[in-house]
Amino acid sequence: MKDTLELAFLTDLNKTVHLQIPNPKTPISATDITTAMDAIVAANIFVFPTGRIVKKVLAKVNSSGSSQVTLGQ
């Protein structure tokens, strides 16, 4: 199974931007995610065409996987 951690932030131009992190550590806690998002906001290192990150909005882990299906004859 492949997981992606998706982080959403609000910019100073009131637009939402997303950062996707493939294969985050597991298990990952809400505290870990909150700490990371707070650090991203505080560092002010990401600049997007839609502005600078000023606030965290949401985080979610997206999981995708595949399993083989045996077909009948």
UniProtKB/TrEMBL annotation:
InterPro entries: DUF2922. It comes from the Bacteria. This is DUF2922 domain-containing protein. It comes from Sulfoacidibacillus ferrooxidans.
